[in-house]
Amino acid sequence: MPSISVIIPAYNAEKTILETINSVIKQTFSDFEIIVVNDGSTDKTLEILQNIKDDRLKIFSYENGGASSARNRGIAYATGDYISFLDADDLWTPDKLELQLAALQAHPEAGVAYSWTYVINGEGELLRTIEHNYEDKVYGEMLLKSFVTCGSNPLIRREAIESVGGFDVTLKSGDDWDYWLRLAYKWHFVVVPKHQIFYRRSATSKSFKLKIIRECSITVLDRAIKLAPLELQHLKNHSLSNIYRYNVQLYLDSLNLNPKVDIKYVLGNWWNSIRYKPDTLKDIETYKLLIKILLTGIMSPKLMSSLLEAFRRTKQTKNLLIQS
């Protein structure tokens, strides 16, 4: 039996699924199986999968049930001692599995290994990088935000998976965060301090359904805070602030894709991020967000998106110069 089971839920992923699977096949650690759950695709996803020649690939097709349902079905088929999930439009660097497995083997008390992340757009262009170094008992940090970032990141021991059960299929969004919280409540985490995940935000990503992701995140937080010990209960308002602030950032990331979003809704999120954590008024980024929001009210979505893209590229250039 393979050491690692890689579970890929795929729904109408014809544009990205081949590149995603190739990023697994090219891993430096090769003792794995790839379990693709074709979640009712109506495009050429299944045809593309059937043309991939690799004995480690296993394909299972079902009627559409959503990503959480597909992941749960993949878990049922998995035979590895470790399990990793990969969304059908995300990518891994070649050493992802090797380094995460080494981290778990070096820390037998840990149930989850995660890495740093590149956030990319639908065209594969870098939007930002995300680096967190939380380790050991991380329930408090996980209450504040889903620092693992996306469902394509962690490598998880089978025992940890079995201890928390499957993903919550009733959640329309925030199901990843809910799952990481349940794992963090019972298990230690270990970090691989290297960017190994390419997390794609595209026009079809549920990350852009602003109201759904906000409301589901609040639901997940309300559920998780009830399990938190008394010394962590005070984190609820800080976490709420993060949820509203994240919703603003999603709006700015998707401006050219969702130009009809009510600016009053976005300003309301910005204000709530301050209301629940007044200390954010000391953060210059808070005012930068406000300026960007206000500019979206007077500029066309296309022009504003181009302006934000110019700011992003300038920032990247400065960071590269600093690193060199």
From TrEMBL:
Location of the Glycosyltransferase 2-like domain: 5-164
InterPro entries found in the cross-reference section: Glyco_trans_2-like, Glycosyltransf_2, Nucleotide-diphossugar_trans
Domain of life: Bacteria
Pfam families given in the database record: Glycos_transf_2
Xref: CDD domains: Glyco_tranf_GTA_type (cd00761)
Designated name of the protein: Glycosyltransferase family 2 protein
Organism: Anabaena azotica FACHB-119
Source organism phylogeny: Bacteria, Bacillati, Cyanobacteriota, Cyanophyceae, Nostocales
